[in-house]
Amino acid sequence: MLFKRAMRLEEKSIEPNDPENPDTRNQGDAPMRLSYIAALYFAEGKYQEAEPLLQDALKKAQVILGTSHPTLANILKNHAEVEMAQGKYKEAEPLLKSALEMAEQGLGANHPDVANILDNYAALLRKTNRSAEAEKLEARAKFIRTPQ
Q1: 147 burial class (0-12, 13-18, 19+ CB within 10 angstroms)?
Q2: Is residue 16 situated within a structural domain?
Q3: What is the per-residue pLDDT for 3?
Q4: How far apart are CA 133 and CA 81, in angstroms?
Q5: How far apart are CA 73 and CA 100, in angstroms?
Q6: Residue 85 pLDDT > 70, yes or no?
Q7: In total, how many domains does the chain have?
Q8: Per-residue pLDDT averaged across 102-125, rounded?
Q9: Does residue 128 form part of some domain?
Q10: 3-class DSSP state of 123
Q11: Label partner for 132 (CA 20 to 30 A): which of 1, 30, 77, 138?
Q12: CATH number of the CATH domain containing 57
């Protein structure tokens, strides 16, 4: 986990209020770095390691960016994917609902990120035997991706 090690070294070498601190230069970076590491854990099937990183990323993003920034939608979607991979569909659904709402508000109803969240939500609905609802979301995602 070279990326994780580099992030720890960077955090140790820079003081929190230092102008060279990456969080000071671009405040959205810290939560996204955590989210990227969580994505690596997810890809390795290490869901227990990914989950707390996503929770921390969400908390930091809310403090730094506010409670409705589109970055939060991505973190919520990733957190929902971790929950779904563990069969925790009841925990994943409110995360996807919030992610969808934030993405629609922050990016617009026809943004590609909205389509990705719709696909994830449809997959959850299919896993919970709600195919009719899933089909509606899949159709909407397809519409977003179809050139107008």
Answers
A1: exposed
A2: no
A3: 53
A4: 19
A5: 7
A6: yes
A7: 1
A8: 97
A9: yes
A10: helix
A11: 77
A12: 1.25.40.10
Answer whether residue 11 is part of any domain.
no
Q: What percent of the chain has pLDDT over 70?
A: 81
Amino acid, single-letter form, for residue 103: A
Q: Whole domain around residue 80: which residue ranges?
A: 26-145
Contact assessment for residue 104 and residue 113, using Cβ atoms and an 8 Å cutoff? no
Please name the residue ranges forming H helices in the chain.
Answer: 2-13, 22-25, 29-43, 47-65, 70-85, 89-107, 112-127, 131-145
Model pLDDT, residue 135: 98
Which residue in 102, 50, 46, 40 sits closest to 74, CA to CA? 102
Q: The tokens of 36 are what?
A: 């990227």
Q: Which two tokens stand for residue 130?
A: 């709600």
Dist. CA 95–CA 57, nearest whole Å: 14
User: What is this structure's pTM?
Assistant: 0.81
